[in-house]
Amino acid sequence: MASRRHVIADDLRAQISTGRIKAGERLPSETQLAARYTVSTPTLRSALALLQAEGLVEKVHGKGNFVRRPVQRITYRGGSPTPPTPALQSSIRVTRIRARGHLCTLLRVPVGTPLTEFHCLSHDGTSPYGLARVYIPRDLAPAVTPDESPWPAKEATPLAEIEETLCARLPTALEAATLRISPTLAVLAITRVATDTAGRVVEAAVLAIPGDRAEAIFTTHHTADDRRTEG
Amino acid sequence: MASRRHVIADDLRAQISTGRIKAGERLPSETQLAARYTVSTPTLRSALALLQAEGLVEKVHGKGNFVRRPVQRITYRGGSPTPPTPALQSSIRVTRIRARGHLCTLLRVPVGTPLTEFHCLSHDGTSPYGLARVYIPRDLAPAVTPDESPWPAKEATPLAEIEETLCARLPTALEAATLRISPTLAVLAITRVATDTAGRVVEAAVLAIPGDRAEAIFTTHHTADDRRTEG
DNA sequence: CAGTGGTCTAGACCACGCG
DNA sequence: GCGTGGTCTAGACCACTGT
After folding, report:
1. Distance CA A208, CA B156 (A)
2. Domain formed by A4-67, architecture
3. Which of B79, B215, B226 sits opposite A167 (nearest CB)?
4. What tens digit of pLDDT does each residue of B134-163 get?
5. Cβ–Cβ < 8 Å for A48, A17
6. Count of A–B CB contacts within 8 Å?
7. Which CATH superfamily is domain B74-217 in?
8. Where in chain A is the domain with CATH 1.10.10.10?
9. What is the reported pLDDT for B216?
């Protein structure tokens, strides 16, 4: 029942949580740990893989295994048209692209429609923790440049509805690399589509947040007359 | 860049998606596959582990590796006090427990408060796919028995607000076993807390849905005066 | 360069499912 | 009992990071 790797993982987890191995610190090398626990290196590595999947340990090739700092939890608040984490450092890259494939479905536009893409990576100090790709039809966001407010004002088109679809999935190779997480650590993926009163999609956003530090909160108010709209 | 396991996984994935290996079918044994791809068994197993994590293949000890049937996607609709998947077979177990630990925080009740627990496992035919644990203070759900409607009527206490918190995490050992998913496949975890107009928590639910087949949708309607009702 | 993790091998033995 | 997957070993060699 209790395989060696679980015993080792439990022991290391305990050492981390009790502070015997502090956050940010490097673990002994895999060879040393394997010797200490008298197991082969593949076995020890599989134990570390468990801690990786939990987001507790980060492996850095050529350097070692490091205890991850207890990251502050990222809270995504649903129902808001504004960026998920407004008061955050983030590097934004703006590109002009044309709609194709899945984006056409999301934005309900024909293939080739000019779009503005915001590729946004949120940081907390050195560690990245949020990846957002926002797509806006260019005719609705006329002249957005990196110098201006990166999040285009939407007052011009009154917002009618925001639909957010969430799922848990493994990160793509690109997402794992960008967010510096293990490819085995699931991300919380949020697809947000905002439509205006005319039924046009004014914004589609695809967000990926590491599962170990993200949570999304949705609050639904029910009025006294029990108007059960929604779904 | 392209490690052997990825090449093998890509090949098997292609064979599955093109239908050369059909859903429900058993793959050749790991020994056979290892021979076919001229790799060692651990390498082949690590390739299968990738497909497992994607939810494409299910391993059954002593029997073999099976291609999972393309499960219909489970859609959880946010903002509703009713069970997430109403028209579904589900086995419900009702227990009377007393609040402790995390439940006290969730339900905002002191330790020892009598609760009714609904342990609910939703099925689609033979395969389980949703695990829900619903907790209700017993004084608010006076006489609920398995024979009655399992979901207590809430008309007595007008609902004011529902807060749903979502995160992506690995399943607990119990969840993985109950849902028959690999422990490496993330679940979408939803914690739903419903409060009535008096501010009391009338229901707290903890749901776990396999990440490969679940998505949660939240719709937010914005009225002209930008009043943030729910959805 | 030395030290680290990344990948892979060719076996071994154990645990499970089924006839 | 036999075939299956589950776990583990004791190495090997490659790739990356620092000095």
Report:
1. 40
2. Orthogonal Bundle (1.10)
3. B215
4. 999 988 755 444 444 445 444 456 778 899
5. no
6. 149
7. Chorismate lyase-like (3.40.1410.10)
8. 4-67
9. 94
